[in-house]
Amino acid sequence: MPRRSEEMLMDLWMSLLLLWITCVPCVSMTPIIGQSKSTQTGGSAAVASGLGEGQRLLSRAKRGWVWNQMFVLEEFSGPDPILVGRLHTDLDVGGKNIKYVLAGEGAGTIFAINELTGDIHAMKRLDREEKAEYTLTAQVVNADTDEPLEPPSEFIIKVQDINDNPPQFIEGPYRASVPEMSTVGTPVTRVTATDADDPVYGNSAKLVYSILEGQPYFSIDSNSATIKVALHGMDREIREEYLVVIQAKDMGGHMGGLSGTTTVTVTLTDINDNPPKFSKSLYEFVIPEDLPIGKMGGKVKANDRDIGENSKSTYNIVEGDEGGMFEIVTDGQTQEGILRLKRPLDFESKRAFTLKVEATNLRSEPSSGGPFKDTATVKIVVEDSDEPPVFSKPVYQLEVNENAPINTVIGTVTARDPDSSVSLVRYFIDRHTDLERQFNINVDDGKITLAKPLDREADMWHNITVTATEVRNHSQISRAIVAIRVMDINDNAPEFATEYEAFLCENGKPGQVIQTVSAVDKDDPIQGHYFDYRLVPEMLNNPNFTIKNNQDNSISVLAKHDTFRRQKQEVYFLPIIVADNGNPPMSSTNTLTIRVCGCSKEGIVQSCNVEAYVLPIGLSMGALIAILACIILLLVIVVLFVTLRRHKNEPLIIKDDEDVRENIIRYDDEGGGEEDTEAFDIATLQNPDGINGYLPRKDIKPDLQFMPRAGQHSGPNGVDVDEFINVRLHEADNDPTAPPYDSIQIYGYEGRGSIAGSLSSLETASSDSDQNYDYLREWGPRFRRLGELYSVGESDRET
After folding, report:
1. pLDDT in tens, 44-83
2. What gap in Å lies between CA 222 and CA 220, rounded to an integer?
3. CA angle, corner 39, sides to 38 and 41, nearest 5?
4. What spatial distance separates the first Cα and last Cα of the chain, rounded to whole Å?
């Protein structure tokens, strides 16, 4: 028999045994009995069917079977409906006409009752996992009238569980991780399986866990489903990932239980358990001596079997670089050690280096006792290169006096070829730094000489660049800066610090200080300035002023009396000689201007002009200037106002008798045709020359009218129509003052008349016989026919 059938048969026998044990006699208050657990109440005698017929049951007077629930096995699939139980009432005695009625959940569809016997059958296959119990109501009614014979009674039919659902891992498959080299028993993860069977009834939902695949590396707790490390020393560098198959079995793991499986992928995470290891114990590099500072000279690499942060290392030079010539840095992308130059190499001084390089892990495990390390040897051979000349100093500072003559030697710069095969050196001045060519240099020995006179007061410093070039290789060039300081000599005389103008009050006192005067000197002597002031010899006995030395390179000018008057003399000029203490001493004569002014009692200057005497009392010059400015402003405002009013009253268009053409203002107007005589002034067409041969325009402002150009107006006699139109067309096309909008150019023209006069006989006193029309034939083909007509008419009259 298949395994599934054996399990179902065993569950069926156990259920029947449970039903038999739970059926006990009791007292009931209802006339209905059934197969169930029961309690005792008052009632009449009844019999429980569902047992075999003919069996004699114990009974008591006024007592019967009391019930409140029934049981039915799930997943029963026999050929006939399964009997759930039987209902019976005390009213069912003899041939009494009664019937049983069933109502509630599943009545008539899932459960059916025999109206006569009260047997309840399950009509469909039931699944406890879908619905575990059903609540129904039973009642006895009259078979003919359906009149209830007793109150309805409620009972429950419970679906008994069988082991028909295997365990399931809802969250599987699982992924977990654990550090490598973990100790035995280290928890990895926990899995969980669920069973849809009844966890209360039997062992259908009691699960036991086991490992089907993944031993001996991992184990699992059979009850808690916790996966643990089972093998010591699992190394990620050997194997990183493990697949573990977990089984969950119900029925407590006994035979006949159902099972489910899931997979757990366990990944060993890295710890820093491997040291860095150089791929070679000895590295050799050849570096040219002209390698620029900071450039790479070689690479080293220490490999680490760990990953991530555990594999990162830092590099250091631990031996062999006493002069600090090199440095080694870590490339963050490749984890290589980059050997770089910190100081220039010199093949002639040292041709080889031996370095010891160490690689150290950045991280270390607490139990490792410190970071892992490894060392390697690096040998560097310096390769000779053709180097540029080397100056004895990178910066030279020279001095020269500003009065030094041309070709004076200022100083010397020197450079040498550092190569073993020494080459001659030539010197040059970079003229971009000496645009005025004030200096020269000897190409052979580097002596710098003066080419032009220098002035310290113009430029105190001159910074030039000198280049040194190898004779055999002109591409090898080096540069040095030469700072030339121009030393001062006493070649400038002192002078007043500013243009002084002193003011002297008429009511001043003798000995009053009029002005304090100081001087400046463009020279800059080492010992500092000292100025000597004195009056010019012819003013030594000046009756009006004197000077006083203030002992601070300044003097005070004093008044000798108090009788200064503006009417007598308004301005005084006081020449003063200022001399310095240089070698040789320099001096200059400066003039101090002193004005006599009227002052208040407090000594405040009020006016320094003689004209102030004629001014009104109480009005100063500033007040008069302000009044005059206001009057001028008012006059300007009045003139502007009158001009604007006059401009506003002027008409903006030209008189009609001067207009010979019209403007189109609106471009959507429809003309009046040939009969429209108001569109333009027809009278102007009678005068083709206009006013003095010039036709004014209305499409520009009147004040912008231009005068007719010479040679473009018509002659006084015999104006040709085509010529007139061409002239006007040329004028309209080439007029620079014409506005940039369309206008109608009127070319209507009637002419001045014919030189032949009128053809009508009404305007002549002569008769027809006096007229001679032969000249009409001379006028061309247009008048030939007219001449023939008049000639024929004349001959007819004669005949």
Report:
1. 323 333 333 333 344 443 333 445 778 888 777 777 888 8
2. 6
3. 130
4. 164
Residue with tokens 């029961």: 38
Alpha-carbon distance of 478 to 290, in angstroms, equals 13
* C-alpha span between 771 and 786 (Å, rounded): 14
168-269: which CATH topology?
Answer: Immunoglobulin-like (2.60.40)
Return d(Cα 376, Cα 321) in angstroms, integer.
Answer: 14
Task: Specify the DSSP element, H or E, that contains 6.
Answer: helix 3-22
User: Cα separation of 399 and 411, whole Å?
Assistant: 8
Residues carrying CATH 2.60.40.60, the chain: 69-160, 168-269, 277-383, 390-487, 495-603
Q: How many CA atoms lie within 13 A of 653 on its CB side?
A: 10
pLDDT digits (tens, 9 = 90+) for 536-573: 888 778 888 888 888 888 999 998 888 888 888 889 88
Level-2 CATH architecture, domain 495-603: Sandwich (2.60)
Cis peptide before 173 (omega within 30 of 0): yes
Name the superfamily (CATH) of residues 390-487.
Cadherins (2.60.40.60)
Which range, of 152-156, 537-541, 663-667, averages the lowest pLDDT? 663-667
Q: pLDDT over 70 for what percent of the chain?
A: 74
Q: How far is CA 740 from CA 171, 186, 737, in A?
A: 86, 97, 9
For residue 695, give the nearest of 725, 650, 667 by alpha carbon.
725
Report the DSSP beta bridge partners of residue 72: 159
What type of residue sits at position 8? M
Q: Bridge-partner residues for 179, per DSSP?
A: 269
Q: How many CB atoms lie within 10 A of CB 660?
A: 25
DSSP state of 280: -
> Residue length, the chain?
799
Rounded Cα distance, 266 and 182, in Å: 13
Cis peptide before 575 (omega within 30 of 0): no
> Do 496 and 519 form a contact (C-beta atoms < 8 A)?
yes
What does DSSP assign to residue 691?
B
- Say if CB 358 and CB 314 are below 8 A apart: no
Q: What are the tens digits of pLDDT across the range 455-477?
A: 888 888 999 999 999 888 888 89
Give the DSSP H/E element, type plus range, for residue 517: strand 513-520
Fold of domain 69-160: Immunoglobulin-like (2.60.40)
Distance from chain centroid for Cα 726: 65
The C-alpha atoms of residue 424 and residue 420 are separated, in whole angstroms, by 12
Read off φ and ψ for residue 786, nearest 5 degrees: -65, -40
Superfamily of domain 277-383: Cadherins (2.60.40.60)
DSSP string, 373-412: EEEEEEEEEEEP--PPPEES-SEEEEEEETTPPTT-EEEE
